[in-house]
Amino acid sequence: MKFRVDRDAFAEAVAWTARALPARPAVPVLAGMRLEIPDPGSGRLRLSSFDYEVSARAAVDVDVDQPGAILVSGRLLAEIARNLPPHPVEVASDASRVLVTCGSARFTLLTLPLEDYPRLPDMPKVTGSIGGDAFGTAVRQVAPAASRDDTLPMLTGIHVAFSGDSLTLAATDRYRIAVRDLWWRPAQADLTASALVPARTLAETARALVPGSNVDIALSTIGSGGASRGEGMIGFETGGRRTTTRLIDSEFIKYESRFPTEFDARAEISTAPLTEAVKRVALVADRNTPLRLSFTQGEVVLEAGSGDDAQALEALETKYEGDDMRVAFSPSYLLDGIGGVESETAYLNFTAPTKPVVISGVPSEEGGRPDFRYLVMPLRVS
Amino acid sequence: MSRRQLERGAALRGVVGPDGIRPLAAAAAADADCHILHIDMDAFFASVEQLRHPETRGRPVIVGGTGARGVVSSANYLARGFGVHSAMPMVRALRLCPDAVVFPPDGAAYRRASEAVMDILRSVTPEVEKLSTDEAFLDVSGAQRRLGSPVRIAELIRHRVRQEQQLTCSVGVAATKFVAKLASTHCKPDGLLLVPTEHVTAFLHPLPVGALWGVGEKAEQSLTRLGLRTVGDVAGVSPETLRHELGHALGGRLAELAWGRDDRQVATATPDKSVGAEETFPRDVDDVEVIHREILRLSEKVARRLRASGQVGRTVVVKLRRADFTTITRSRTLGEHTDVAREINAVARELYAAAGLERVRLRLVGVRVEGIADAATAPRQPTLDEPETGWREAERVMDQVARRFGAGAILPAALVNRDDADV
């Protein structure tokens, strides 16, 4: 195989593909990145990586001298590509080596045995599509609420529910539940399906989206009657780049009933000043110390720290309806909730100081359901 | 003191009488008001090393820096027989005792052994004041109804430290901290000395002034200048004179101490760094079910003690000692503080399973909770699906039942003695 390629386009495609490389490969070949030019006429180089869970595929335009396929250490190639000087890149391989030349820099890499490399799963049939920006925002809103504790796999996923032209993303770690409703364009109007996608992969995918792009979503369980969940897989394709990931084979909790339908008190606070104030006051609190909020008519006082430690206090103007309320949160849980609110004003809805609180944006229509809802359990402080 | 002990050749168990120390008779010890115990581990670092290196038994052992400027930090009594003592340059120590086995200090090992001993002390009474890794005061006034007289408690502690840790300690029993500490020093090693209140002055007055708490080199010189060489001499001088000569604070204190008066309380104020319990089996055990039951029992005990002292902890530590005395510890830090036995037990069991010692013969298991915080101020993050009342509340009710009807009145079913219950 031999080709020439633009330095930046190559570096970018290699970096994107390297995201799916396993940190600790189960078998040595999985540390490899596959480079392939199947057909000299296409002028396309295809890059791929796979760790049995997640696969990533990208393509880049190249000048083909000779088609072929090779497998090289993905991490090393990514490091090299990132640091190449600004000159066209030439890549040439013989039986056991790959030569990367760029300006006066030359690298020789050993190839890995291509015949041992597993076949990447096929991309399932496209189920629908959505704007990349809206999708990226939705993932960022719910991902923080997913658990990072691998002993409970069900909680490490983001639940994606498809119902006609609405899409609902939800995640919970048992301390809070984040839910986001949004619109999308399904391939079939009567689609009903759901998938539990590893939150880490989904967040990675959303982070790597190009602004203004479009994302095709493909779910493997659709089409086979939707009945069997089996070896489920979901794929995301944007701008010729595809990521697939295995689904978490587990039921998600029925979260909707956890959200209270009636509230005894509500605060309406400007989102940006609240976020800043919480960040400031939280400076004196660590992960396990509470950030205390006291709501009275027209004002909320934020406090953290006590007695022998550093303390912080800040008051904010707020619209508040209900009896005076004192409630405490883990600072990061509170920030994850407020951070998900897109509207200028954030709602904090209360029932009792020890009961879950719902943080949300302002619904687009009066009395409607807000797009983003975040249910969080307050800290119990005696 | 050590020289005397070596000459006598047997551990001292004595009581101070009007005319010197007499052997302690089991009955009729006048210890009713002597509720302060001073526990001092014998040649602590050296003893821990000897335990880890059984081949050094019967040989002089020194722990200390082995470099050119190394200093002795601990020496066993055989080495002390050659004149070796702590703070002595290692070079000199080895000249005095060339056959000694020298170990560099292993702080972590001594801390672990120290915590195990402190756990024994805390199981006697929560009123424990730890002075250093190898020394502590106990106030046993509250434990007497449960465990007997102070001398009996001292014997019990010595027995348990020997049985469970293979270490010896010396215990001084008296009505004040000052006298209790002098008493333990007096009966080292492996001794027990009771100083009944009526004989305190007989015990104190022949001692040199340096024995008084707070008298260092300088104060000793001042006292010698005044012609005061023994504690009795100091006792004979008026407090005004002492204050005048030594300053208000020290003079006043020495006037009191010389008569055995010391109103310092056993101060437990420094919060526990950990709460733990361990069990040495009468016979080594490899039955997983028996180990599981023991882990449950210890978890219950630790949780009960946490709740009783209003504390919660975040890190669960399991200690497993094999039949050959090799010991491993495994720990896990939880997301939340806890004082619930059910939660501690679940983690401890997992740690035991993960240690890979199932079906290995064990001599000892221990459960400990670290990362202690005050339950009243430690915030708790409940889960969304947590019921209003759960195990936490159930275990609090168990505490109440136990307070009213005794410790064995309510137990997890797994810990009930089946022979009794199934009839």
UniProtKB/TrEMBL annotation, chain A:
Molecular functions (GO terms): 3'-5' exonuclease activity; DNA binding; DNA-directed DNA polymerase activity
Top-level taxon of the source organism: Bacteria
Main location (coarse class): cytoplasm
InterPro entries given in the database record: DNA_clamp_sf, DNA_polIII_beta, DNA_polIII_beta_C, DNA_polIII_beta_cen, DNA_polIII_beta_N
Subcellular location: Cytoplasm
Quaternary structure and interacting proteins, as annotated: Forms a ring-shaped head-to-tail homodimer around DNA.
Family: Belongs to the beta sliding clamp family.
Protein name in UniProt: Beta sliding clamp
Originating species: Marinitenerispora sediminis
Classification lineage: Bacteria, Bacillati, Actinomycetota, Actinomycetes, Streptosporangiales
